[in-house]
Design goal:
This protein is α+β, with helices and mostly antiparallel strands. Helix content is 30%, strand content 27%. The two termini are 39 Å apart.
């Protein structure tokens, strides 16, 4: 008799199996008990009929509590009304570990309570579904780049350089020198692009932003591709293809999870090419038509991004932002040097920017002057300037925050549910 995972039980109808898991819920109807167990792969309805089991088994099923560890032996039966299309006719119900007073009950709990018990909240059906989608998104990301011959470059977490300025860095001591938790792997990807042509990094990044909005975390995961000889139009195409692929994979392979989350998948089905593409100046004019006071040089906040996104039915790409509000490394537009060849992709439904990217400055003198204009220490960027000293080349890249993408795909209101253990302004526990 084999031990079988719940997701595989359809292949074992009529067989006697063992299932290990935890009690998710249960109901009783006279001489029948219906424990629902989970094992991480799915949910299984068990049927305990008093006439068919011994007294110890009947009592164990009756006394078992929520989230107790269980081992169930029985015969798999087809049942279209049950989760997964099968049920288990129980002959043995064992409780190796009884959970007493499990703190998260089916009643409503406040957000603070649930976040304090995040390590247990992960077991709930909706949180489980969200992180299943995240798992698929991360696998889709790796498949997308691997299939296109990108090389994964593991950028460092500890760095002496800032990619986006120093005001939002977490500082730490590095044997007497200042070091920072990485905001981005981009600066390390650019030299790697000269070695491999197409590269990407994928890992945690950190922003010491004193923000409490639903769109921000102190620690989040970001994927960043960088491509040699790719100029701005190619970058926009890559970002578009990437998002279409990732959303498509989630829809295709996480349909049950999206159903559990009551996600309106019709809003994901229309995520197809082409995406609308507008310039920053177009966006300013659009905001004005919506009654928003906006002028050239303003940065867009969450409210402005939502208004812009609501004018379209799929993600919109905004390009050519003013150089003064963008990072030092972004390539000026040759047709209008007051703006840069940068883009932000704004997701629908109020989820905000999911991708930010640009063509990079590849001219040594221009990049050096921009570093100096931004008040950054030139000595710390000498290695970065080497990429322009020795065989410079046009190149472009972008970054996508995984949590914002997962929150949008799943329809959850806050990024804290799109990562297993969120780090927020006033939360570093558990």
């Amino acid at each position: 008799m084999s031990t079988v995972r719940i997701k595989d039980l359809l292949q074992h109808i009529g067989e006697r199996v063992t299932v290990d898991g935890w009690l998710y819920n249960k109901r009783t109807s006279g001489k029948l008990q219906f424990p629902i167990i989970r094992d991480g792969s799915g949910y299984l309805q068990c049927v305990v009929f008093k006439k068919e089991v011994d007294e110890a088994t009947w009592n164990a099923a009756g006394e078992v509590t929520q989230e107790s560890t269980v081992r169930v032996i029985g015969t798999v039966r087809a049942e279209s009304r049950a989760p997964g299309g099968v049920e288990l006719g129980v002959e043995s119900f064992q409780v190796p570990s009884l959970a007493r007073d499990y703190p998260i009950s089916p009643k409503e709990h406040g957000t603070d309570f649930l976040m304090n018990h995040r390590h247990l909240w992960l077991r709930s059906s909706k949180q489980h579904a969200i992180l299943r989608v995240r798992n698929e998104v991360e696998k889709a990301i790796r498949d997308f780049f691997y299939d296109r011959d990108f090389v994964l470059i593991d950028s460092p977490i500890l760095t002496a350089n800032a990619a986006e300025g120093t005001s939002t860095l977490f500082e730490t001591d590095y044997f007497g020198e200042k070091a920072y938790l990485s905001q981005s792997g981009q600066l390390y990807l650019e030299p790697a692009a000269a070695a491999f042509g197409r590269v990407y990094c994928f890992g945690p990044t950190f922003r010491a932003e004193k923000s409490k909005t639903r769109r921000h975390l102190m620690e989040f995961w970001m994927v960043e591709p960088e491509v040699a000889f790719m100029e701005f139009e190619g970058l926009q195409d890559l970002a578009e293809d990437f998002v279409v692929y990732v959303v498509g994979r989630a829809r295709e392979r996480c349909s049950e999870e999206l159903k559990m989350l009551e996600r309106d998948v019709s809003k994901l089905e229309i995520v197809s090419k082409p995406f609308p593409r507008i310039t920053y100046r177009d966006a300013i004019e659009l905001l004005k038509t919506k009654g928003v006071e906006a002028k050239f040089g303003d940065d867009f906040g969450g409210d402005e991004e939502t208004i812009i996104a609501n004018s379209f039915d799929r993600p919109v790409m905004i390009s050519r932002y003013p150089a003064e509000i963008k990072a030092f490394y972004m390539q000026p537009d040759p047709a209008d040097p007051s703006v840069v060849l940068g883009l932000d992709m704004i997701a629908p439904e109020g989820y905000g920017e999911i991708i930010g990217g640009s063509q990079r400055i590849h001219d040594y003198d221009l990049l050096k002057s921009r570093i100096e204009q931004h008040g950054l220490p030139l000595a710390a960027f000498e290695w970065y300037l080497d990429v322009r000293r020795y065989g410079s080349f046009p190149h472009s890249g972008f970054g996508m925050g995984i949590e914002r993408c997962v929150a949008w795909i799943t329809g959850v209101p806050h990024l804290r549910e799109a990562i297993p253990y969120p780090r927020m302004l006033n939360r570093i526990y558990p």
